[in-house]
Each structure stands twice: as structure tokens, then as C-alpha cells.
């Protein structure tokens, strides 16, 4: 997915690597609400949002729903086959949860990651037919110019990981040892797993709630 952002955003406080604590303005670490269990009110709202996306797109193009931490719908938006323009809702994203579909079924793209980190999202989720992906950042990237070095290190790392995955999987595809579909599902999942191991935050891939 390519999330299109044309405006600057404000940073938010830190979140612990396990996603269970957040730092208050006072500097105190406070527990975040308990992990959302399947069947909870919030997860039911997530599932409803996914079903709305599918009803509008048939998973042929992208759409998004922005929820607050209680599951209230804040914004919705239809996109195209590869992107959603969120330029007019940059500040609305702060401290909220962005849900969207990935027609290819793959994990988060570099644009997903940077959108999350630079716009104060508490969490971003993407889903396809097979899997649902969840990413909660450890902390937001500060405003420019302070963020230039951080941005560059993140972009360089993701680029290197992307290339490494092509080098790793392309011979297997050509040898018939891996299907293109399997490679697509695995590619960005491995990149995200390595990204979180280096930069912190929480990342999970689990069975999709909707098909």
C-alpha cells in the first residue's frame, strides 16, 4: 500500500516495545488497555470495519477506516488499486488506529511504516484474504529537521531488507521451489519482523478475520 501524505504531522509519546505501556507527558509509564482479545468490543468493531471495506471494494482496490481506541469510526476513505490519499486527515490520525486492506495480501509497505511513524498513529492494521497484520510503533518520529537522520536510517534499513528478500526469494521462484504468491506473502512479513527487531515496537501476523 502507498499512503499518500502531503502535510507535516505532530509527534506523540513513546510506547514500550511490547505495546503494553505508554509514556505520559509527565514522563510516567502507564499501562495501555489489555491486549484486545477476539470477541472483545474493540475487535468486533475492527471486524465490522473490515467487512465494510470488503463491501465497498471486494478487495479489488484499497479503502481505510480510522478508529479511535474505543472502536469509534473517525474517518473512512476509498482509494485505488495501490494507494489511499490521506493528506487531509494527517492530524486526525494522531493517537488513533488505521485499518485498511491489501488486495495482494502482503504485509506493510515502507509507506505504511512511515505514515504510522510520522503521523502519530497508535496502531496500523492491514488485512488480506489469508492474514491480518498489526504494527504498533515504539515511538513517533519527531518533526523536521530533527527527524532527518532517523528517517534516513529507517528508509535505508527497509531498502536493504527489501533487496535482501529479492535476493533470497528470486532463485527459489525461478527454481520452482516457491510460488509467487508465497513469496508475496512472505516478503514484507520478513522485512517487518526484522524492522521491529531493530527499531522496536510490536508486530504480528495472524489469521485474517475476514476472507
Key descriptive features of the protein:
single chain, alpha+beta, Cytidine Deaminase, domain 2, six-stranded mixed beta sheet, 4 helices, globular
3D architecture notes:
The protein is globular. The model is unreliable at 4-13 (pLDDT under 50). It has helices at residues 41-57, 110-118, 148-174, 180-199, and strands at 2-4, 21-23, 29-31, 63-67, 73-78, 83-85, 97-101, 123-127, 131-136, 202-207. It has four helices and ten strands. Helix content is 35%, strand content 21%. The chain has a single domain, classed as Cytidine Deaminase, domain 2 (3-Layer(aba) Sandwich), CATH 3.40.140. It is of the alpha+beta class.
Short description:
By secondary structure, this protein is an alpha+beta fold.
Radius of gyration: 17 Å
Quickly count the helices: 4
Inertia-based shape: globular
The low-confidence runs, each spanning 5 or more residues with pLDDT under 50, are 4-13
Helix residue percentage: 25-40%
Name the strands of the widest sheet in spatial order. 5-4-7-8-9-10
Query: What value does the average pLDDT take?
Result: 86
Q: Strand-residue fraction?
A: 15-25%
> What separation lies between the terminal Cα atoms?
19 Å
Q: What is the CATH T-level topology?
A: Cytidine Deaminase, domain 2
Counting DSSP E segments of at least 2 residues, the number of strands comes to 10
Q: What would CATH call the class?
A: Alpha Beta
| Elements, N to C (H/E) | EEEHEEEEHEEHHE
What count of structural domains? 1
Amino acid at each position: 500500500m502507498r499512503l499518500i501524505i502531503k502535510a507535516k504531522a505532530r509527534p506523540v509519546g513513546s510506547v514500550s516495545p511490547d505495546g503494553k505501556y505508554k509514556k505520559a507527558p509527565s514522563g510516567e509509564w502507564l499501562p495501555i488497555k489489555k491486549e484486545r482479545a477476539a470477541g472483545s468490543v474493540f475487535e468486533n468493531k475492527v471486524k465490522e470495519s473490515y467487512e465494510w471495506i470488503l463491501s465497498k471494494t471486494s478487495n479489488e482496490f484499497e479503502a481505510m477506516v480510522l478508529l479511535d481506541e474505543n472502536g469509534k469510526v473517525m474517518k473512512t476513505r476509498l482509494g485505488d488499486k495501490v494507494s489511499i490519499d490521506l493528506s487531509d486527515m494527517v492530524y486526525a490520525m494522531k493517537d488513533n488506529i488505521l485499518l485498511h486492506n491489501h488486495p495482494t495480501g502482503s504485509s506493510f509497505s515502507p509507506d505504511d511504516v512511515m505514515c504510522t511513524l510520522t503521523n502519530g498513529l497508535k496502531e496500523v492494521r492491514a488485512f488480506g484474504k489469508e492474514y491480518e497484520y498489526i504494527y504498533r510503533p515504539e515511538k513517533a518520529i519527531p518533526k523536521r529537521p530533527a527527524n532527518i537522520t532517523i528517517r534516513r536510517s529507517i528508509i535505508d534499513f527497509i531498502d536493504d531488507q527489501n533487496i535482501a528478500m529479492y535476493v533470497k526469494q528470486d532463485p527459489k521462484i525461478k527454481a520452482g521451489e516457491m510460488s509467487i504468491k508465497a513469496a508475496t506473502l512472505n516478503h514484507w512479513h520478513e522485512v517487518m519482523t526484522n524492522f521491529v527487531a531493530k527499531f522496536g515496537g510490536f508486530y504480528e501476523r495472524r489469521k485474517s478475520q475476514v476472507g
